[in-house]
Amino acid sequence: MNVRKSWRRVDGVLLLDKPTGMSSNSALQAARRLFSAAKAGHSGTLDPMASGLLPLCFGEATKFSVDLLAADKIYEAELLFGIRTDTGDADGTVVMQSPVTFGRAELEAALSRFRGPILQIPPMYSALKRDGRPLYELARQGIEVEREARAVTIHELWLLDFSQDRCRLRVACSKGTYIRSLAEDLGTVLACGAHLTVLRRVAVGPLRIADAVTLDQLAALAEEARAGWLLPPDTLLKSLPAVDLDDAAGRRFVHGNPVCIVGSPGRCRVYSGNRLLGLGELDGEGRLQPRRVLGAP
């Protein structure tokens, strides 16, 4: 006899250390079941072959997940030179092999070309859509379409290790950066081809992998202890200034009405006492406009 799952309201942020071999959505659903959360979402996907930090949002925290999509990311990656695959990573089919003849000095020189603002062509095996269809669906049918180069920024690019035909990199980059494309482009510059063999995300904005938990660790905990891994919804807004409203102004704000305050224009997290009310934006005339408002606790 099947027992119907009982869902409940859970509000908070979970920093999950996603394992390799699992899609981001599968990881989200597994975590959601462990918390019996009625509403859940993630703030940006990781490929199945990638591991690392996947911030998950439950309940009211999902209202702020879009803000994390624009955050900078940090990855640690391993590249294999001399082999190019159709997907740009180890999950793909080998399409070219070449000898590796360069040394560390040539690799360092090549890396310097990718630091700062660059143009990057998204891979065919990506979730970007063309005429409503994800590119990876077209790629699986052997169809390749032209993709427009996009501007991204590599803030930092460290060479952690290099030995024969492999290297390890640490990449701090802007949103929209594809590390698979970076690997392929680096292989092109070095005239031997390359693909990604390991990818681990270690930071998303101010969030760090050191504070994350695995699904296995969560599953081994009692329900009360499991809840201790949930962070408050305003974890995703910590980079924004805070505004505190009195009770009357707070009631106006949560009902979608602007509030007049003194402050610098821009987005801010809004509180009344210790309670987070939501995300607001102060205009140049001193009006605090509600942008996303939390429901009652």
UniProtKB/TrEMBL annotation:
Residues 180-237 form the tRNA pseudouridylate synthase B C-terminal domain. It catalyses: uridine(55) in tRNA = pseudouridine(55) in tRNA. Residues 32-179 form the Pseudouridine synthase II N-terminal domain. Keywords: Isomerase, tRNA processing. It is an enzyme of class 5 (isomerase). Residues 241-294 form the tRNA pseudouridine synthase II TruB subfamily 1 C-terminal domain. SUPFAM superfamilies: Pseudouridine synthase, PUA domain-like. InterPro entries: PsdUridine_synth_cat_dom_sf, PsdUridine_synth_N, PUA-like_sf, PUA_sf, tRNA_psdUridine_synth_TruB, tRNA_sdUridine_synth_fam1_C, TruB_C. The keyword tRNA processing applies. NCBIfam families: TruB. This is tRNA pseudouridine synthase B. The gene is truB.
